[in-house]
Write a structure and sequence with these properties.
This protein is an alpha/beta fold. It contains 28 helices and 15 strands. The chain folds into 4 domains: 238 residues, SGNH hydrolase (Rossmann fold); 55 residues; 375 residues, no CATH class; 29 residues. It comes from Orthonyx spaldingii (Chowchilla).
């Protein structure tokens, strides 16, 4: 940690990812849309002063505000631009040399009582080199002129943002005869003079003229693509304009994926309370540990001198051990949440933008598949979708999704469509698993509901508090939570139809199918009635959970994207359990699921269906159109995979313990990646070790997986304490939970009021 200003890094250092994506050192650059640029620069006056290179930067800058602008201004004259709708004024002033004329213009702003420009961008040198044939006298005069201008710029910098653009290198082989005297050696001499003189007299940090030197680095990589050897190609000057926009606008607009030039957000009231709570938990745990250690020493086994027998220490009271376990969990959780905060809220660790290449996605995929196959073991049971198999399925899907996120593969549509199937498969398992449990066990008690809700939501609730994010931000957990409640309500509502009361009576099966039909009708209605959906989830307190950026549209979009797949999971579970009950499938070790002929036919159809879906997904041209079809067709590949994985007996009898291990902590992996593996709320990549991308990924991944595993253990331990089996104790705990959320709502309201 160098303690440097990310604005300085943005203005002075970076590298290209690929050919066109610029990555500043240590921070993320936001790509501003036209509407965002206008909102940032509303009522602002921006001035560009200099030669033809600055004019290029001026045009790229105003195209961020209005992309329809054409470069039709006078070449050697002033060019005005104004966006009346946002009261934005941007001027280009033609001053190709640092001389008395430029000084007089800058001086007029310092002496005038009128409003000064909010942003001033200055730069010139190549004309001086060209006109004076690169003479040393011209360089000496340049130093004198810039020395006289520097105090004026520093005076303007007290209230305005002033940038001095260093001269870009040229491609000498392409320069015309009239420009041959403009050499990179001369340009370096002029740049050195400018850097040395600017800010030399300034002691006030607010009065610093910001040196825009990053343009030099960009030009070094791209100047060979120049049309004349002097002026930058369009993509490079667009990058410079975007950097300029980030430097000024990030602190105003505060984009999530624009960490450059953003100050660390202040701690909220709820975050301060959480910090105090975890601190007290750590102190409490240390005190209890010391007390227990002292008691252990006093009661330590010792030999009775008369009888020769050992005296055993007395056992601690159960309530003390429960308290110690609770404090131990919160102590570990507090340390982990501190790491979360430091990674993604404090400006301690670096963050970088994602950049997709096919190799960055497919090579890790091949690597983990080889590892997964290497760790193959026999299953304890050979039923369809047994526990080891579902853990394995969750595990490899989660690893693929993680690679998808860190590689930025969402920009590649075929990969995106296949990842959508993996997310749908998670929800399919939700429908299958919970339906199977309620159907077989018939347990609709409060304990079961509370256990599931706690395990699903505990980590997300803690992160909402610590990271100051809304519940809907972690969209997958609200999704599986709501679907669990829908499954529960569908099966628990009268008449409760479970396996034990359907024996030999098809009417009960018909009743259950009627329930499922009603559920499908409701899903269909809500998916095509956005207004009705939004009304349901806009009521308090649901609105507090499902709103994001002031509305529930994002929640409706997420729900709609996989609206049928949970129903498909429930229906598959019903059909499978009915076939199993009637002994119509063979689940013995090594036996095919059906007769050889039927198994071969189904296997062939499954493979063809699986490949057909992949071909369709790979030929997708439009994400919107494909997303419309996805809810109805994703089940094809899911069912095809299940049949391919389970029809051959030898395939069903083995599983990958490597994938299964990750599957057991898949939910924690999915949530933790937001802040301690990725960065800026999944928009970027966390950088613990700068300069070594592969080593950085290895270290951050190791920590990330360990933390996810530890949180899974903490959640399981706390679930035993917070959700006890005894109904009276459970009721008391539920009242405590209700009190916690009431307090959270109260402090949240206070927080919102103070912000407004």
């Amino acid at each position: 940690f160098k303690g440097g200003d990310t604005c300085e890094y943005l203005l002075s250092s970076g590298r290209f990812l690929g050919e066109k994506v610029w990555q500043p050192h240590s921070c993320m650059m936001h790509k501003y849309k036209n509407s965002e640029a206008r909102n940032c620069l509303i009522d602002k006056h921006v001035v560009f002063i200099g030669d033809s290179r600055i004019r290029q930067l001026f045009y790229s800058f105003i195209k961020l505000i209005n992309p329809q602008v054409k470069e039709e201004g006078i070449k050697h004259g002033n060019i005005p631009f104004e966006d009346e709708s946002a009261s934005i004024k941007v001027d280009f002033l033609w001053y190709p040399e640092v001389n008395g004329s430029m000084r007089q213009r800058i001086k007029s702003w310092t002496e005038s009582s009128a409003a000064k420009p909010h942003i001033i961008v200055v730069g010139a040198a190549t004309w001086s080199i060209k006109i004076h044939n690169g003479s040393n006298e011209a360089l000496a005069q340049y130093k004198i002129n810039i020395t006289s201008i520097a105090p004026l710029l520093e005076k303007l910098a007290i209230n305005s943002d002033v940038y001095w653009v260093l001269q870009d290198p040229v491609y000498e082989d392409m320069l015309s005869e009239s420009r041959k005297m403009i050499t990179n050696e001369k340009i370096d001499a002029y740049n050195e003079a400018a850097v040395r003189i600017l800010n030399s007299s300034s002691r006030n940090s607010k009065a610093k003229v910001k040196v825009f030197s990053v343009s030099k680095l960009i030009a070094q990589e791209t100047i060979m693509k120049s049309a004349d050897g002097l002026h930058l190609p369009e993509s490079s000057r667009d990058t410079n304009a975007m950097i300029l926009m980030n430097v000024y606008c990030n602190k105003i607009m505060k984009p999530i994926d624009g960490s450059c030039c953003q100050p660390q957000p202040p701690l909220t009231l709820i975050q301060k309370i959480a910090f105090c709570f975890f601190t007290l938990s750590i102190i409490g745990y240390l005190i209890i540990s010391l007390i227990h250690r002292n008691n252990y020493r006093k009661n330590k086994s010792c030999t009775d001198l008369e009888s020769g027998e050992e005296k055993k220490p007395s056992i601690s009271a159960p309530n003390v051990s429960t308290l110690e376990m609770l404090l131990h969990c919160f102590c570990k959780l507090g340390l982990i949440m501190t790491y979360f905060y430091l990674c993604d809220r404090a400006n301690l660790f670096m963050k970088e933008n994602k950049f997709y290449t096919h190799s960055s996605f497919f090579i890790p995929i091949v690597y983990i598949l080889v590892l997964g196959v290497f760790y193959t073991e026999n299953t304890k049971e050979t039923k369809v979708l047994n526990r080891e198999q579902t853990d394995e399925w969750k595990g490899w899907m989660q690893l693929v999704i993680l690679i998808y996120h860190i590689s930025g593969a969402s920009t590649f549509l075929p990969v995106y469509m296949h990842i959508r199937v993996l997310v749908a498969a998670y929800l399919f398992q939700t429908g299958y698993g919970h339906f199977s449990y309620f159907w077989i066990k018939g347990d609709f008690g409060v304990y079961r509901v509370c256990q599931v809700l706690f395990r699903l939501n505990f980590l997300v609730v803690v992160l909402c508090v610590v990271m100051d994010r809304p519940y809907q931000f972690y969209y997958f957990v609200p999704l599986v939570t709501v679907w669990f409640m829908i499954i529960y309500a569908t099966l628990a509502v009268w008449p409760q139809i479970v396996q034990k009361n359907t024996n030999g009576n098809c009417l009960w099966h018909f009743g259950l199918l009627l329930k499922l039909t009603c559920l499908l009708t409701c899903i269909y209605f809500l998916s095509y009635s956005q207004g009705a959906f939004e009304k349901i989830f806009s009521f308090w307190p649901l609105s507090k959970c499902f709103e994001l950026n002031g509305n529930v549209y994002e929640w409706w979009f997420r729900w709609k994207l996989d609206r049928y797949v949970v129903f498909h999971g429930m229906l598959f579970a019903f059909v499978y359990l009915a076939l199993q009950k009637r002994q119509m499938i063979s689940e013995g070790k090594g036996d095919p699921l059906f007769s050889n002929r039927v198994s071969n036919v189904l296997l062939f159809i499954s493979i063809v269906s699986f490949l057909t879906y992949s071909i369709w997904a790979s030929s997708c041209k439009n994400k919107t159109e494909c997303n419309e079809l996805h809810p109805s067709v994703s089940v094809v590949q899911i069912l095809a995979f299940i049949l391919i994985r389970n029809i051959p007996g030898y395939v069903r009898s083995v599983y990958s313990s490597f994938f299964a291990w990750f599957g057991k902590i898949s939910l924690e992996l999915f949530i933790c990646q937001y802040h301690i593996w990725l960065a800026a709320d999944t928009k970027g990549i966390l950088v613990l070790i700068p300069g070594y991308p592969m080593f950085n990924v290895l270290v951050s991944t190791f920590i990330f997986v360990c933390v996810a595993h530890e949180i899974s253990q903490i959640t399981n331990d706390l679930a035993q304490i917070v959700v006890p089996k005894d109904n009276s104790t459970l009721l008391k705990r539920l009242l405590c939970v209700a009190g916690f959320f009431s307090g959270l709502h109260f402090f949240s309201a206070m927080q919102d009021q103070s912000r407004h």
